[in-house]
Every structure is written in C-alpha cells, then in structure tokens.
Amino acid sequence: MKCPFCGFEESKVIDSRPTDEGERIRRRRECMGCAKRFTTYEIIESVPVIVVKKDRSREVFDRNKLFNGMLRACEKRPVSLDALERAVDSIENALQNSLDREVTSVRIGEMAMDRLKELDEVAYVRFASVYRQFKDINTFMEELAKLLDNRS
C-alpha cells in the first residue's frame, strides 16, 4: 500500500476492523518509510454473473428470481425456507466461484432442478414441467420414468 504522505510502497497493518456489517475492512497502517499512520478500507469486489437467456439476451443474475421460481415449485410441499435458501445459496456460490462470467439460463435451470430433486421430487417435477416446457403428457411421463429409474 502506497503511503499518502511520502509515497513509500511498504506499510504494516496496525489494526483491522470490520465495518458496514462485514462488507468492508478498515485497516490502520503505518508507513515503513516515514512512520506516519493512515487508514485504508478494503471491499470485496464482486463481478456480476451475466445470464445468457434462450433468446440470446443477457441480464445480470438475480438471486430473487431463482428463489421465487424454486419457491413456486415447492408450494404446499414439506420444504423449509431454510433448505430452499441453502439450495439457492449453493447455486449462487457455484456461479460466483466458476471462472465463467457468463452462464446460460439452461445451466442455472439444470442446477436448480438438481437441488430440487434432492429436496422434494414433486417440486422437482413441477419445476421441470415449467422449465422444460412439456408439450404433452408423454414428455411429462418420460421425465417421471427417468425419476423412477434413478430411484431404483
């Protein structure tokens, strides 16, 4: 960290404290050149994940949109909000930790279906029926058959 007084490029940290509910860190530093003290703030830089939709349009990933879609699939099912939050958290973390800054909506949908399959099979089928846009009862039955095959 460059000293604002003398321009020396080395300093030592005297004190660190979280601020803004842990979003930033306040650091008291001492210049190794002139021994003057100064304060710096560090923030986590978050690069937004861009979702590439089926029509090739792009939008910023919206956690609430994913949560609401999964919540609708779990309506009147024995799935706790905490479990649903954890599932959405895991998807969001996987997207943030991937090296890809652009992700397809298909990939997000598949991740959501994987999490819902673990939580509740009925919610999984509900989500899949909307997500995959089942055209008729046969495609719906094919998905159910896959689910039953994976069970045994």
Could you explain the architecture of this structure?
The chain is of the alpha+beta class and 152 residues long. Helices cover 45% and strands 22% of the residues. It has five helices and six strands, in the order βββββααβααα. The strands form two sheets. Strands 1-2-3 form a three-stranded antiparallel β-sheet, with no helix packed on it. Strands 5-4-6 form a three-stranded mixed β-sheet. α1 packs across α2 and α3 packs antiparallel against α4. The protein is elongated and about 75 Å long. The mean pLDDT is 88.
Indicate the low-confidence ranges by residue numbers.
Answer: none
The tally of beta strands, per DSSP, is: 6
Please state the average pLDDT score.
Answer: 88
Tell me the overall shape. Answer: elongated
- Tell me the β content: 15-25%
Q: What's the multimeric state?
A: single chain
Total helices: the number is 5
- The percentage helix is 40-55%
Cα gyration radius (Å): 24 Å
What is the succession of H and E elements?
EEEEEHHEHHH
Distance between the termini: 59 Å
Q: What order do the strands of the largest sheet run in, or round the barrel if closed?
A: 1-2-3
Largest sheet: 3 strands, antiparallel
Structural class: alpha+beta
Offer a concise description of the structure.
The chain is an alpha+beta fold and 152 residues long. It has helices at 63-73, 81-97, 105-119, 121-131, 137-151; strands at residues 11-19, 24-31, 37-43, 50-52, 58-60, 102-104. The longest helix is centred in the middle third of the chain and has 17 residues, at 81-97.
Helix and strand arrangement:
Blueprint: E1 11-19, E2 24-31, E3 37-43, E4 50-52, E5 58-60, H1 63-73, H2 81-97, E6 102-104, H3 105-119, H4 121-131, H5 137-151
Helix pairs in contact: 1-2, 1-4, 2-3, 3-4, 4-5
